[in-house]
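User: What would this chain look like folded?
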Amino acid sequence: MVDVVGVGANSVDYVYRLPQFPQPDSPAAKLRIAQHLVTCGGQTATALCTCAAMGLRTKYIGTIGNDPNGDRMRGELAGRGVDVEHVSVRDAINPFAVILLDERGERVVLWQRVPGLELSPDALDPSLIRGARLLHVDDVDEEAAIEAARLGRQAGIPVTSDIERVTTRTEELVTSATVPIFAAHVPEALTGERDIERALRKLQKVRLKPDTTSLEHLICVTMGARGAMLLAGDVVYHEPGRQVNAADTTGAGDVFRGAFIVALLRGDAPEDILRFANAAAAISCTRIGAIASVPTVEETMSLVAIS
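Assistant: Here's the prediction, encoded as structure tokens.
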């Protein structure tokens, strides 16, 4: 049995480390590259690699190009223990991003995903989702994510989600997931509430129904250096950001979601799920790259133990 099926995005990342971010019409308009590397990432791909690194059996469902970057991406996932048997290979260049890093580890991401790489709902095999303990989706191909979440709910498995943007379908995706996990700006954009806790509570009221399971009382938001917040029923937990020497924040939110899944499936209490995921994300920030920054369970637990 597969522990986690992930439906969503992957990316090959061209990372450029700079002394500062470029600024037109200034001395910083022309900068020497301090470091350059090519690494792999993407929302769901990185989350699955985190799960795999921490001992879970994982399967990736998504689209990959038939160019050298597509080969690189597929090889990276397979090499890290993610089952890629059911990826859809398309006649297109693989999704990629150019990531600029400054000396503080902050980033600017420029990305490209060409037409023809969309994953359609009818490309999903329901049996793959029913055979998993948990489904994870992102918001890149929303129709496929919503359909996958519907299939996951029908199968009675938890559905976690990575929601980074707001569109006309976002609310549907939020209600389709059992455990939605938001980027910091999304709750306010959905509710109009600037206070994050009030925004989560407002979203929770919309989601809860008479037949809601206990698992569906969880709703989470990642807040970068400010840590993360989890609403479990009426109880709110806030885990402050860990103080680390950041090299690259790319993929930290995806690592958080992967570690969240690991802790959720092993039955941790809500506060322990949040603490574990937050620690994993902090470790990832000390390393360059998304998938390349994934920590082990042992590394994460060592940081958790440091109060």
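Residues 55 and 143 are 30 Å apart (CA to CA). If you want, I can go into more detail on any region.
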